[in-house]
Design a protein that fits this description.
It comes from Veronia nyctiphanis. By secondary structure, the protein is α/β, with parallel strands linked by helices. The protein has helices at residues 17-28, 40-50, 67-81, 104-132, 153-172, 197-206, 213-224; strands at 8-12, 32-37, 57-61, 86-89, 136-140, 177-183, 186-187, 211-212, 234-237. The relative contact order is 0.15. Bound molecules: NADP nicotinamide-adenine-dinucleotide phosphate.
Protein backbone atom coordinates (compact mmCIF):
# COMPACT_ATOMS: atom_id res chain seq x y z
CA UNK A 1 0.00 0.00 0.00
CA UNK A 2 2.71 2.45 -1.01
CA UNK A 3 -0.02 4.82 -2.17
CA UNK A 4 -0.69 5.71 1.48
CA UNK A 5 2.81 7.13 1.97
CA UNK A 6 2.56 10.81 2.92
CA UNK A 7 -1.24 10.87 2.84
CA UNK A 8 -2.65 13.43 5.34
CA UNK A 9 -5.39 11.76 7.38
CA UNK A 10 -7.61 12.97 10.22
CA UNK A 11 -9.49 10.36 12.26
CA UNK A 12 -11.98 10.71 15.10
CA UNK A 13 -12.52 8.08 17.79
CA UNK A 14 -8.86 7.07 17.58
CA UNK A 15 -8.46 6.05 21.24
CA UNK A 16 -9.77 2.48 20.88
CA UNK A 17 -11.24 -0.19 18.64
CA UNK A 18 -11.52 0.39 14.91
CA UNK A 19 -10.06 3.90 15.14
CA UNK A 20 -6.92 2.81 17.00
CA UNK A 21 -6.33 -0.14 14.64
CA UNK A 22 -6.75 2.17 11.64
CA UNK A 23 -4.17 4.58 13.06
CA UNK A 24 -1.69 1.69 13.44
CA UNK A 25 -2.13 0.43 9.88
CA UNK A 26 -2.08 3.85 8.24
CA UNK A 27 0.98 4.97 10.23
CA UNK A 28 2.80 1.76 9.31
CA UNK A 29 2.12 2.57 5.63
CA UNK A 30 3.60 6.05 5.97
CA UNK A 31 0.48 8.20 6.28
CA UNK A 32 0.60 11.35 8.42
CA UNK A 33 -2.20 11.47 10.96
CA UNK A 34 -3.99 13.91 13.22
CA UNK A 35 -5.95 11.78 15.66
CA UNK A 36 -8.81 12.85 17.93
CA UNK A 37 -10.85 11.44 20.82
CA UNK A 38 -11.54 12.46 24.42
CA UNK A 39 -9.08 10.01 26.07
CA UNK A 40 -5.68 11.56 25.34
CA UNK A 41 -3.84 9.03 27.55
CA UNK A 42 -5.04 6.19 25.31
CA UNK A 43 -3.97 8.02 22.15
CA UNK A 44 -0.54 8.88 23.65
CA UNK A 45 -0.07 5.20 24.54
CA UNK A 46 -0.99 4.24 20.97
CA UNK A 47 1.61 6.63 19.55
CA UNK A 48 4.26 5.25 21.96
CA UNK A 49 3.38 1.73 20.87
CA UNK A 50 3.98 2.71 17.24
CA UNK A 51 7.48 3.95 18.13
CA UNK A 52 9.92 5.89 15.95
CA UNK A 53 7.32 7.98 14.12
CA UNK A 54 8.54 11.42 15.16
CA UNK A 55 5.94 14.02 14.13
CA UNK A 56 4.01 11.57 11.97
CA UNK A 57 1.03 11.27 14.34
CA UNK A 58 -0.39 14.28 16.17
CA UNK A 59 -2.72 13.71 19.10
CA UNK A 60 -5.48 16.22 19.77
CA UNK A 61 -8.12 15.96 22.47
CA UNK A 62 -11.44 16.12 20.65
CA UNK A 63 -15.07 15.82 21.69
CA UNK A 64 -16.98 15.41 18.44
CA UNK A 65 -20.15 16.78 20.03
CA UNK A 66 -18.37 20.16 20.07
CA UNK A 67 -18.10 21.72 16.63
CA UNK A 68 -15.21 23.93 17.78
CA UNK A 69 -13.21 20.80 18.74
CA UNK A 70 -13.62 19.27 15.28
CA UNK A 71 -12.81 22.57 13.58
CA UNK A 72 -9.65 22.72 15.67
CA UNK A 73 -8.75 19.10 14.79
CA UNK A 74 -8.99 19.87 11.07
CA UNK A 75 -7.19 23.21 11.48
CA UNK A 76 -4.30 21.35 13.16
CA UNK A 77 -3.92 19.13 10.08
CA UNK A 78 -4.07 22.08 7.69
CA UNK A 79 -1.60 24.17 9.73
CA UNK A 80 0.87 21.32 10.16
CA UNK A 81 0.66 19.64 6.74
CA UNK A 82 -0.92 22.27 4.44
CA UNK A 83 -3.72 20.04 3.19
CA UNK A 84 -6.06 17.26 4.20
CA UNK A 85 -6.46 14.17 2.07
CA UNK A 86 -8.76 11.98 4.16
CA UNK A 87 -11.21 12.49 7.02
CA UNK A 88 -12.37 9.32 8.77
CA UNK A 89 -15.51 10.03 10.81
CA UNK A 90 -15.24 7.03 13.11
CA UNK A 91 -16.27 8.15 16.63
CA UNK A 92 -19.45 6.47 17.76
CA UNK A 93 -21.30 4.78 20.59
CA UNK A 94 -24.04 2.18 20.91
CA UNK A 95 -25.98 2.26 24.20
CA UNK A 96 -28.78 -0.10 23.10
CA UNK A 97 -32.17 -0.05 24.86
CA UNK A 98 -35.86 -0.48 24.19
CA UNK A 99 -37.66 2.74 23.25
CA UNK A 100 -40.08 2.13 26.16
CA UNK A 101 -37.15 2.52 28.57
CA UNK A 102 -37.05 6.19 27.46
CA UNK A 103 -33.30 6.56 27.98
CA UNK A 104 -33.51 9.98 26.37
CA UNK A 105 -30.01 11.03 27.46
CA UNK A 106 -28.55 8.03 25.62
CA UNK A 107 -30.64 8.80 22.52
CA UNK A 108 -29.28 12.33 22.55
CA UNK A 109 -25.71 11.10 23.02
CA UNK A 110 -26.04 8.82 19.96
CA UNK A 111 -27.52 11.58 17.84
CA UNK A 112 -24.82 14.02 19.01
CA UNK A 113 -21.85 11.68 18.44
CA UNK A 114 -22.93 9.28 15.66
CA UNK A 115 -24.79 11.82 13.53
CA UNK A 116 -24.00 15.42 14.46
CA UNK A 117 -20.32 14.54 15.01
CA UNK A 118 -20.14 13.24 11.43
CA UNK A 119 -21.86 16.37 10.13
CA UNK A 120 -19.43 18.61 12.04
CA UNK A 121 -16.58 16.67 10.44
CA UNK A 122 -18.01 17.16 6.96
CA UNK A 123 -18.61 20.85 7.67
CA UNK A 124 -14.98 21.30 8.72
CA UNK A 125 -13.38 19.67 5.65
CA UNK A 126 -15.75 20.34 2.80
CA UNK A 127 -14.45 23.89 2.20
CA UNK A 128 -10.73 22.94 2.19
CA UNK A 129 -11.41 19.83 0.07
CA UNK A 130 -13.39 21.86 -2.49
CA UNK A 131 -10.48 24.32 -2.69
CA UNK A 132 -8.03 21.44 -3.19
CA UNK A 133 -10.44 19.89 -5.73
CA UNK A 134 -9.74 16.58 -4.00
CA UNK A 135 -10.31 14.70 -0.78
CA UNK A 136 -11.80 11.56 0.70
CA UNK A 137 -14.43 11.39 3.46
CA UNK A 138 -14.86 7.96 5.05
CA UNK A 139 -17.86 7.58 7.35
CA UNK A 140 -18.12 4.57 9.65
CA UNK A 141 -21.76 3.49 9.60
CA UNK A 142 -22.81 -0.11 10.40
CA UNK A 143 -24.96 -2.95 9.19
CA UNK A 144 -27.33 -1.21 11.64
CA UNK A 145 -27.56 1.34 8.84
CA UNK A 146 -28.99 -1.35 6.56
CA UNK A 147 -31.52 -3.02 8.86
CA UNK A 148 -33.21 -2.38 12.19
CA UNK A 149 -33.28 -4.56 15.31
CA UNK A 150 -35.18 -4.27 18.60
CA UNK A 151 -33.15 -2.27 21.19
CA UNK A 152 -31.27 -0.65 18.30
CA UNK A 153 -33.94 1.79 17.08
CA UNK A 154 -32.01 4.98 17.81
CA UNK A 155 -28.58 3.53 17.01
CA UNK A 156 -29.95 2.21 13.70
CA UNK A 157 -31.58 5.58 12.98
CA UNK A 158 -28.23 7.35 13.38
CA UNK A 159 -26.44 4.84 11.15
CA UNK A 160 -29.18 4.95 8.47
CA UNK A 161 -28.76 8.73 8.57
CA UNK A 162 -24.98 8.47 8.12
CA UNK A 163 -25.50 6.34 5.00
CA UNK A 164 -28.10 8.79 3.64
CA UNK A 165 -25.96 11.86 4.09
CA UNK A 166 -22.91 10.07 2.68
CA UNK A 167 -24.85 9.33 -0.50
CA UNK A 168 -25.98 12.96 -0.70
CA UNK A 169 -22.40 14.11 -0.25
CA UNK A 170 -21.25 11.76 -3.00
CA UNK A 171 -23.80 13.17 -5.44
CA UNK A 172 -23.12 16.80 -4.56
CA UNK A 173 -19.30 16.73 -4.57
CA UNK A 174 -17.78 15.08 -7.64
CA UNK A 175 -14.21 15.91 -6.54
CA UNK A 176 -14.55 14.31 -3.11
CA UNK A 177 -14.39 10.54 -2.72
CA UNK A 178 -17.08 9.31 -0.32
CA UNK A 179 -16.91 5.93 1.39
CA UNK A 180 -19.20 4.28 3.93
CA UNK A 181 -17.80 1.40 5.96
CA UNK A 182 -20.60 -0.74 7.43
CA UNK A 183 -19.25 -3.34 9.84
CA UNK A 184 -21.15 -6.09 11.61
CA UNK A 185 -19.96 -7.31 15.02
CA UNK A 186 -16.38 -6.20 15.63
CA UNK A 187 -14.43 -6.98 18.78
CA UNK A 188 -14.08 -3.52 20.41
CA UNK A 189 -15.27 -1.61 23.48
CA UNK A 190 -18.51 -0.61 21.71
CA UNK A 191 -20.92 -2.84 23.73
CA UNK A 192 -19.53 -1.46 27.02
CA UNK A 193 -21.79 1.61 26.72
CA UNK A 194 -24.95 -0.49 27.10
CA UNK A 195 -26.41 0.47 30.48
CA UNK A 196 -29.14 -2.21 30.62
CA UNK A 197 -27.52 -5.36 32.08
CA UNK A 198 -29.70 -7.87 30.23
CA UNK A 199 -29.28 -6.18 26.86
CA UNK A 200 -25.56 -5.83 27.57
CA UNK A 201 -25.21 -9.54 28.36
CA UNK A 202 -27.18 -10.55 25.26
CA UNK A 203 -25.04 -8.28 23.10
CA UNK A 204 -21.80 -9.66 24.58
CA UNK A 205 -23.10 -13.15 23.79
CA UNK A 206 -23.82 -12.14 20.17
CA UNK A 207 -20.33 -10.59 20.01
CA UNK A 208 -18.70 -13.97 20.67
CA UNK A 209 -18.49 -14.25 16.88
CA UNK A 210 -17.04 -10.74 16.41
CA UNK A 211 -14.23 -10.18 13.94
CA UNK A 212 -11.05 -8.28 14.73
CA UNK A 213 -10.96 -4.49 14.35
CA UNK A 214 -7.80 -4.98 12.29
CA UNK A 215 -9.91 -6.44 9.47
CA UNK A 216 -12.08 -3.32 9.35
CA UNK A 217 -9.00 -1.09 9.50
CA UNK A 218 -7.51 -2.99 6.56
CA UNK A 219 -10.68 -2.41 4.54
CA UNK A 220 -10.45 1.32 5.28
CA UNK A 221 -6.80 1.37 4.16
CA UNK A 222 -7.74 -0.53 0.98
CA UNK A 223 -10.38 2.04 -0.03
CA UNK A 224 -7.84 4.81 0.51
CA UNK A 225 -5.23 3.07 -1.62
CA UNK A 226 -7.43 2.98 -4.74
CA UNK A 227 -6.49 5.19 -7.70
CA UNK A 228 -7.73 8.80 -7.42
CA UNK A 229 -10.50 8.28 -9.97
CA UNK A 230 -11.93 5.25 -8.13
CA UNK A 231 -14.47 5.81 -5.36
CA UNK A 232 -15.33 2.74 -3.29
CA UNK A 233 -18.72 3.87 -2.04
CA UNK A 234 -19.49 1.23 0.54
CA UNK A 235 -18.03 -1.82 2.20
CA UNK A 236 -20.14 -4.17 4.34
CA UNK A 237 -17.91 -6.40 6.45
CA UNK A 238 -19.14 -8.83 9.11
CA UNK A 239 -18.48 -12.22 10.68
CA UNK A 240 -19.36 -15.00 8.26
CA UNK A 241 -21.70 -16.46 10.92
CA UNK A 242 -23.63 -13.20 11.51
CA UNK A 243 -27.08 -13.52 9.94
CA UNK A 244 -28.25 -9.93 10.51
N1 LIG B 1 -17.70 -2.68 17.07
C1 LIG B 1 -18.71 -2.94 16.27
O1 LIG B 1 -19.28 -4.06 16.30
C2 LIG B 1 -19.17 -1.92 15.27
C3 LIG B 1 -20.07 -2.34 14.29
C4 LIG B 1 -20.55 -1.41 13.38
C5 LIG B 1 -20.12 -0.09 13.46
N2 LIG B 1 -19.25 0.29 14.43
C6 LIG B 1 -18.88 1.71 14.49
O2 LIG B 1 -17.46 1.81 14.50
C7 LIG B 1 -17.10 3.07 15.09
C8 LIG B 1 -15.96 2.82 16.07
O3 LIG B 1 -16.45 2.06 17.16
P1 LIG B 1 -15.62 0.86 17.84
O4 LIG B 1 -16.34 -0.37 17.53
O5 LIG B 1 -14.19 0.98 17.50
O6 LIG B 1 -15.90 1.17 19.38
P2 LIG B 1 -14.98 1.74 20.55
O7 LIG B 1 -13.81 0.87 20.78
O8 LIG B 1 -15.93 1.97 21.69
O9 LIG B 1 -14.48 3.14 19.99
C9 LIG B 1 -15.31 4.26 19.93
C10 LIG B 1 -14.45 5.49 19.74
O10 LIG B 1 -15.32 6.63 19.65
C11 LIG B 1 -14.81 7.63 20.48
N3 LIG B 1 -15.84 8.55 20.96
C12 LIG B 1 -16.99 8.28 21.62
N4 LIG B 1 -17.61 9.43 21.95
C13 LIG B 1 -16.82 10.44 21.49
C14 LIG B 1 -16.91 11.85 21.53
N5 LIG B 1 -17.94 12.49 22.13
N6 LIG B 1 -15.92 12.56 20.97
C15 LIG B 1 -14.86 11.94 20.39
N7 LIG B 1 -14.73 10.62 20.32
C16 LIG B 1 -15.70 9.88 20.87
C17 LIG B 1 -14.13 6.90 21.64
O11 LIG B 1 -13.12 7.73 22.19
P3 LIG B 1 -13.19 8.49 23.60
O12 LIG B 1 -14.11 7.71 24.49
O13 LIG B 1 -11.77 8.49 24.06
O14 LIG B 1 -13.69 9.85 23.27
C18 LIG B 1 -13.51 5.72 20.91
O15 LIG B 1 -12.25 6.07 20.41
C19 LIG B 1 -18.37 3.64 15.72
O16 LIG B 1 -18.91 4.63 14.87
C20 LIG B 1 -19.30 2.43 15.76
O17 LIG B 1 -20.67 2.79 15.72
C21 LIG B 1 -18.76 -0.60 15.32
Amino acid sequence: MNDLQGRIVVITGASSGIGAETVKILAQHGAHLVIGARRVDRMDALVSELGNIEGQVIVKQTDVTKQADIDSLIRTALDKFGRIDVLINNAGLMPLSFLSQTKVDEWEQMIDVNLKGVLYGIAAVIGPMKLQQSGHIINIASIAGHSVFATGSVYCATKHAVRALSEGLRQEEPHIRTTVISPGAVDTELPNAISDKRIGAATQEMYQQAISATKVAESIAWTMAQPANVDVNEIVIRPVSQSQ
